[in-house]
């Protein structure tokens, strides 16, 4: 795996407790069970905390299962009760954050895919004295909305890395598939591709929660628009859909994607996907819970006012041997 040339160095800070020995696709349990390769042994001796994570995940998005697995591992280590909920609509996500505030949680982890919908409720969290860490999306709004820090990747830089990679592969015309219309991070990815790619880029909006419909839309676009030699998907589940759409359209376009899961790694090995951009979702979940625990127990804050970067890194078939076992267990 190679870190994108245009990206800043990845920052990964993991603090282990003294005495210590992955919408998402499915809703997390209220208790931290350490699934997904979590830490074993005794939990931290610090007071029991309750931390809520509220994301913009749509149904069936396996990316968020990996985020949850990281969060659960940190929660088990840190003696934290972990509460997970999600809603792909900004209004619904804000209501879930309000529910967490009403429960008087000790901390909130939240995504800012539709930031303006979250501004008011995060102000209420601040008034209630509940610390917030943002992850994954909307990093430029994080400190503005009162969060301690943001953990994720710079989406524009990640898009630029994809454009560079497409250039190296000699591609001339790319289709950038946005699976959640209005998500600022997805729009930034496609804009980044356009910035560095020397060929033409066209965006296509599909509903990522309706895989048959998305497949049909991508297939129709490939049939109607000549010369598309690269399809860039912005999430791992859409990559699998695009492989099928390519077959339906009898297209020779290369399928490339943001994000990893076990199926993408399998398709990389089979040559059905050219490359993937990894932002380490497990690390996003893990570090967010760990930071809130550190803040509550030791007044620590990560990042020094800057985002804590977990990516991007370009992954190809050469990386499959070292990643396959981790994606299979839901930690990469």
Report on this structure.
- 39% of the residues lie in helices and 18% in strands.
- It contains ten helices and 13 strands.
- Helix 1 (63-78) links the parallel strand 2 (49-55) and strand 3 (80-86).
- It is globular.
- The relative contact order is 0.18.
- The model is unreliable at 5-36 (pLDDT under 50).
Based on the structure, what is the oligomeric state of the protein chains?
A: single chain
The helix tally amounts to: 10
Radius of gyration: 19 Å
Q: Cα distance, first to last residue?
A: 13 Å
Major β-sheet annotation: 7 strands, mixed
Described by the principal axes of the CA atoms, the overall outline is globular
Q: What fraction, in percent, of the residue positions are helical?
A: 25-40%
Please tally the β strands and state the result. 13
Strand order of the largest sheet: 1-13-11-10-9-7-8
Class by SSE composition = alpha/beta
The arrangement of helices and strands along the chain is EEHEHEHEEHEHEHEHEHEHEEH
**Could you name the ranges where pLDDT drops below 50 across 5 or more consecutive residues?**
5-36
The percentage of residues in β strands lies in 15-25%
Helix and strand arrangement:
Layout lengths: L1 E2 L45 E7 L7 H16 L1 E7 L3 H13 L4 E4 L8 H9 L4 E4 L14 E4 L1 H14 L4 E6 L5 H13 L3 E6 L5 H14 L5 E4 L2 H14 L4 E5 L3 H9 L5 E3 L2 H18 L9 E4 L1 E3 L4 H9 L4
Parallel strand pairs: 2-3, 2-4, 4-5, 5-6, 6-12, 7-8, 7-9, 9-10, 10-11
Antiparallel strand pairs: 1-13, 11-13
Helix pairs in contact: 1-9, 2-3, 4-5, 6-7, 8-10
